[in-house]
C-alpha cells in the first residue's frame, strides 16, 4: 500500500494540521452519533460507551495522513491530549453528573469515574501516538486496548459464560471466560483491520517473517496475554493491558532491538 502521507499537500505542516483537525471531527462525529443513539433509545448506554471506546482505539486509522517529515505529525495526539485535560477538569474540578462525558463514559454516572479508566485510556493514546507513531508495536497496543477491551465486557454481559473472580477479588468483582475469548478475537481482528497504518519501513520488517502464520501467532499470543491481564486487573485494566501487550511484543520480537522512537524523529 502506498504511503498516504505523500498523496496530499506538498506542505507537510499544512497537511498535518489538516489531518489533526480531521481526527477532531472524527471523534466529535462518533461521540455525537452515540449520544443521539442513546437519547433516542437506539443504543443502550453500555453499548454506546464501548462504541466510543473502540472508535477511540481505532483513531490510528488516520496515522497515514500525517507527514513524518515535519514535527507537526505529533498533532495525531491532539484529540487524546485535549481529552486528557478535559476529563481531569470534569472529573476532579467541575464534577457535574449531568455532563455529557460523564453520562457517556462512566458506568455509574459519578464524575470521579472519569479519572479512572477514561483518563488512563487517553493518556495511553497520547503516549502511543508520540512514541509509537505508525509502528507495529503501537498498532498492537491500541488494538488490544481499543478493540479487545471494548468487546470483552459486551461479550461478558450479553453472553455470560464461565464467571471467575478478578482483582481485588471482592464479591462482585468477576469477569467471564466468554468476555476473555471475545477480547482475543476482537484484538486479532482489530490488528488485521488496522495494520495498514504501519509505516513502510516497519511493514518491510514485518514481511521478513517466514509467512503470515508468524504474524497470526504473534498477535494471538499478545492478545491472549492481554486478555488474561484484563481479566485479572479489574478497574486498572487499561494501563495493565497496554503494559502487558508492550512487554509481550518485546519478548516475541527478539530478532531485532526494540526502539521506542517513532518515525520522523
Automatic annotation (TrEMBL):
* Keyword Membrane (UniProt): yes
The transmembrane segments are 17-38, 50-66, 114-131, 138-158, 178-198
Q: Which domain of life is it from?
A: Eukaryota
Record keyword Membrane present: yes
Keywords of this entry: Membrane, Transmembrane, Transmembrane helix
State one molecular function term (GO). ATP-dependent diacylglycerol kinase activity
**Can you say what this protein is called?**
WD40-repeat-containing domain protein
Q: Which organism is it from?
A: Nitzschia inconspicua
